[in-house]
User: Fold this.
Amino acid sequence: MDQTDRSVSAPAAAVQAALTPRAAAPEPQQLSRSLSPRHVTMISMGGMIGAGVFVGSSAAIAAVGPAIVLSYLIAGVLILLVMRMLAEMATALPKVRTFTEFARSGLGSAAGFVVGWLYWYFWIITVAVEAIAGAALLHMWIALPTWLLGVGLIAIMTGVNLMSARSFGEFEFWFASIKVGAIIVFIALAGGYATGLLSPSGPTWSNLYSHGGFMPRGAVAVLAGVTTVFFSLTGAEITTVAAAESRDPARALTRMTTSVITRIVIFYVGSVFLIVAVVPWDSIVPGHSPFTHALLAMRYSWAGSAMSLIILTAVLSCLNSAFYVTSRVLFTLAEHRDAPQWMVKLNPRHVPARSVLAGTAAGLIGIFAATFSPTGVFAFLVNASGALILYVYMLTAIAQIRLRQRIDASTLPLRMWWYPWSSYAAIAGMVAVLLAMAVTPSHASEFWVSLTTLAVALCAYALTAYQRSRRSASGGTS
Assistant:
C-alpha cells in the first residue's frame, strides 16, 4: 500500500476527536474553500517577504557586517525546521485548520488558548504597525494628513477581507508577485555586477573582506544578529492558516511548508549576500533600504522611486495578511469557546466578518494614537510584539514532539527530518535567540514586555478555566 493512502493511526484519530470544537458549527458556518494552489503558494512566499528584508536588513548589516549572511542562514534554518514540524503535524491531523491549534492537540487546552491569543495579539499589533508605516510612505506622494491616509488603507483592506477569502488571495497573489519579482531582478542585477559582468571596474567580491574582514564585529555579533533577522523571516506559517480555505488543504501544506520556504530562505540569503558584495557594509545606513543603496551604487538612477513603491507593496501585503490571519485565528478561538461566541458568525461569503472588524478597530486605534505621538506609539507597538512569535513557535515545536510520541510515524507520508534531534535543536535555537534578546540592550525591553504578555495570557487562561469549572459544577455548560 502506498504511504499516502494509509489512514492515520488510532492515537491520531483520538487526537482528532479531542480537537473537535465543543460547539461544532453547522455547515453554513464553515469557512470557504476558494483559495487555489497559486494563491496559497504566493501567500506563503509573500508572508515572509516584507519590509523587514527591504529596509530592516540595513540595521542588521550595519550591526554585523558581511557575516550577516550567516545570521540569516541560521535564522532561516530555524524557520525551516519549524515549518517542517508543521508539515508533519498537518499530515497527521489534516482536520486542524490553523497552526495555532497544533499546540492544543499536543499540549492541551491551555496551550491552545495561550498560543492562539498570543498569535492573534502578534498580528493585531502588526495591523497597527503596518497601517502607520503605509500611511507614512503614501504621505511622500499624496499631500493628505497621515491619519487620513491610514484610515483609507484600513478601509480598503477591511473591504478586501470582508468580500471573500478569494479576494484576499487575489490581492496577496499580486502583492507577493511584485515582491518576489523585485528580489529576482535584484539578484540578477547584483549578481552580474558582483561577478564583474555589469561592473566597469570588475568583480566586487573584495567588499566581503576588505572593510575590517568578513566578521568585523566578531562571532558573537553573528549570533546576536540572528535575534534581529529572525523576525524578518516570520510569517511563513500563514500558509497553514490559508490552507484551511484551499481546495486541498493537506496537499497545500505538505508542498508549501518545505519547498517554498526553502526558496524564500535562498532569496533572503542570496540577496543580502549580494548587497554586502556590491557595496561596503559600513556604507549602509540603518533605516534606509540597502537594496536602494546597492542599486544606486550600480548606477541605476531609478532605484529610489522603484524601491519606494516595492516597499509600499510589501507593507500593504503584510497589512492584508495581518487582517486575514487575525480574523481566522479569532474565529478558531471562538469555535473552542476561548473567544466570544459571536465571533463564530460568518457572513454570506463565509468570512468571519466580526473578527475582521476587530482588526479594523485595532488599526484605527493605532493610527489615531500615532497622530498624537508618532514615534512613541510606533516604538511601543514594536516592543509589544517583541518575542511573542518565538513563544508561539516554541510551544508548537514542543507540541510536535508530544504528538510524535503518540502517533505511529510509519503512517505519515511526510516526517520531521532526523527526529527527535532536529526538533530539540530547533527549540534550543529559539531559546538561544530569547537569551540573546535578554542580554542585548536594544532588544531587552522587547523581551521583558513579551514575557509579561505571556504571563498575562497564562493568567487569562487560568481565570477562564476557573469560571468554566464553576459553571460546570453548578450544572451549566462549559
Remarks:
- Residues 29-470 form a domain with the Amino acid/polyamine transporter I fold (CATH 1.20.1740.10).
- Residues 1-28 have pLDDT under 50 and may be disordered.
- The chain has one domain: 29-470.
